[in-house]
Specification:
Largest sheet: none
Number of helices: 11
Number of strands: 0
């Protein structure tokens, strides 16, 4: 019944149209005393038309869900490479939309989306909890470690925990420039600028542009 009501809401014009046809057919049948086989033909025709339109609507919904699923995967790939604070407005909007659709997270990818969305909104504590769920399911999720480290920095400057996250990311992926860069920033904010600058230089040598720009501004080579 709920499915029928949903279909009626989505196809108000068609519902009214076939309602009018149905009423007109009934009036004609009564007026001209149409009975038996002809009445049955009207009934079967109406049934087939309804089933045909319903099938078309279901196919339309399936295609829409397929497109959403494909875009969902593309967005997941994009956010593995971009920090929440650096995400463009269009990407943030898509993340918010996908996050709203994930009412019951079931996979590591679902938790990553929810963590990313929370981090965009500045809810660092929630983001950290969600990243922990990602890591529990996917211990090699390097992006989750880096993002969680950045969240710890944002959460009242918990630099020690942040640095441990960056170290774990580097352990999993030794050439992960973004992890070196963020670890360098964390050390710098933790009043250990000398060690921090070495990690930033390492990121620059790995081709990480933000690290190169920062060093150039400070007259440092790498």
């Amino acid at each position: 019944m709920a499915r029928i009501l949903k279909w009626i809401r989505q196809n108000k014009g068609l519902t009214i149209f076939f309602g009018i046809i149905g009423i007109a057919s009934l009036v004609l049948a009564i007026f001209f005393k149409i009975e038996g086989i002809l009445g049955l033909v009207f009934t079967i025709l109406g049934l087939f038309l309804t089933l045909y339109i319903q099938k078309k609507q279901e196919q339309k919904e399936e295609k829409k869900e397929q497109r959403e699923e494909e875009r969902h995967k593309e967005v997941l790939e994009e956010i593995q490479k971009v920090q929440p604070k650096d995400a463009k407005p269009e990407l943030k909007d898509e993340i918010a939309s996908i996050n709203d659709r994930i009412t019951t997270p079931k996979t590591a990818d679902d938790w990553f989306i929810k963590a990313y969305a929370a981090q965009i909104d500045g809810n660092f504590e929630t983001a950290i909890r969600h990243y922990e769920k990602v890591i529990n399911e996917k211990p090699d999720a390097v992006s989750a470690y880096v993002n969680m480290g950045v969240a710890y920095v944002g959460l009242d400057g918990q630099y020690e925990k942040a640095i441990k996250c960056f170290e774990k990311a580097i352990e999993l992926k030794p050439d992960y420039a973004e992890a070196y860069y963020n670890m360098g920033l964390a050390y710098g904010q933790k009043s250990n600028g000398k060690e921090g600058i070495e990690f930033i230089k390492k990121a620059a040598r790995l081709g990480y542009e933000p690290a190169q720009i920062l060093l150039q501004k400070n007259g440092e080579s790498w």
